């Protein structure tokens, strides 16, 4: 039976809760100082203080509060040395964060930063397909319409639209940078353009463009909040063929021909991710997307060269 504490009981946490319960219907879940209405709806027990953690014999803690609160939350949790499942992105900025990262590593505290696209089948298939292929160019695109992300909610009041709360398309959609790193490794040079010029009229960045340079090819990544006809694709131009990966429909094309498809959607990756976390990360078999790796990816996202 799994025992977990959730800090931040928003929409993403509810996806993780559902995934946990699919894997273990008897799991015991706690939330820190959440509203009684949410607790009752989700069947989660309230925890009034972090100091009560010791008596719970927890297997792990999910950190899923707003990104700008992650640093302080992890600082408070580090003394308990309980495994941490941290919702992406790791932090909202790089200011004075390395000391905490080094402490977590030195104390061998188990960490995993949740980037669930690594569990999307079309990307898993692609990772195997491109092994030993000569790649000349990579184009990654993710555009969607922020006002439609959350039903019956004023999009200008959520963290995504507010820079001070860790909002911005570059952080919200760090998934694209994460899977680029996962598929192709660490770039040798990075150029970035961030802006907020669209009709959304928000103060966080609504557009980001990255050029990641490698020894033999470049990757271009475009992210935005303002595209009404959502598109999420990866194009890999190889010597012998061009591959197009449609993430929204979980398909891989070689030219006009579909060479892989799955009925599963991105939503299904939450269960796969949680299963991997419980079976591989908690057991020590894997250190994928540890705080060390996630910090490297955050530097690609944010660091000024």
From TrEMBL:
Residues 3-108 form the Gfo/Idh/MocA-like oxidoreductase N-terminal domain. InterPro entries: Gfo/Idh/MocA-like_OxRdtase_N, Gfo/Idh/MocA_oxidoreduct, GFO_IDH_MocA-like_dom, NAD(P)-bd_dom_sf. Residues 127-242 form the GFO/IDH/MocA-like oxidoreductase domain. It comes from the Bacteria. Keywords: Oxidoreductase. Pfam families: GFO_IDH_MocA, GFO_IDH_MocA_C3. Gene3D superfamilies: Dihydrodipicolinate Reductase, domain 2, NAD(P)-binding Rossmann-like Domain. Belongs to the Gfo/Idh/MocA family. This is Gfo/Idh/MocA family oxidoreductase. It comes from Urechidicola vernalis.
């Amino acid at each position: 039976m799994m025992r977990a504490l959730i800090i931040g009981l928003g929409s993403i946490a509810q996806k993780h809760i559902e995934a946990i319960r699919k894997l273990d219907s008897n799991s015991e879940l706690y939330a820190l100082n959440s509203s009684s209405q949410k607790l009752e709806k989700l069947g989660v027990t309230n925890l009034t203080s972090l100091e009560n953690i010791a008596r719970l014999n927890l297997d792990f803690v999910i950190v899923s509060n707003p990104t700008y609160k992650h640093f302080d939350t992890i600082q408070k949790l580090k003394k308990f040395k309980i495994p941490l499942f941290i919702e992406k992105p790791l932090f909202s900025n790089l200011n004075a964060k390395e000391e905490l990262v080094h402490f977590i590593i030195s104390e061998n505290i188990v960490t995993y930063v949740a980037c669930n696209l690594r569990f999307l089948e079309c990307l898993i298939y692609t990772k195997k397909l491109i092994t030993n292929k000569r790649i000349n160019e990579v184009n990654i695109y993710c555009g969607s319409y922020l006002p439609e992300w959350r039903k019956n909610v004023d999009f200008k009041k959520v963290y995504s639209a507010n820079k001070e709360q860790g909002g911005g398309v570059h952080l919200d959609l760090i998934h694209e940078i994460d899977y680029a790193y996962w598929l192709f490794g660490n770039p040798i040079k990075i150029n970035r353009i961030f802006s907020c010029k669209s009709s959304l009229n928000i103060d966080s960045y609504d557009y980001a463009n990255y050029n990641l340079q490698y020894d033999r090819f470049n990757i271009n990544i475009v992210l935005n909040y303002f595209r009404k006809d959502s598109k999420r694709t990866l194009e890999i131009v190889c010597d012998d063929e061009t591959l197009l990966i449609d993430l929204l429909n979980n398909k891989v094309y070689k030219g006009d021909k579909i060479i892989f498809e799955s009925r599963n959607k991105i939503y299904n990756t939450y269960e796969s991710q949680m299963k991997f976390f419980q079976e591989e990360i908690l057991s020590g078999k894997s250190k994928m997307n540890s705080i060390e790796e996630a910090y490297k990816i955050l530097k690609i996202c944010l660091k000024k060269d």
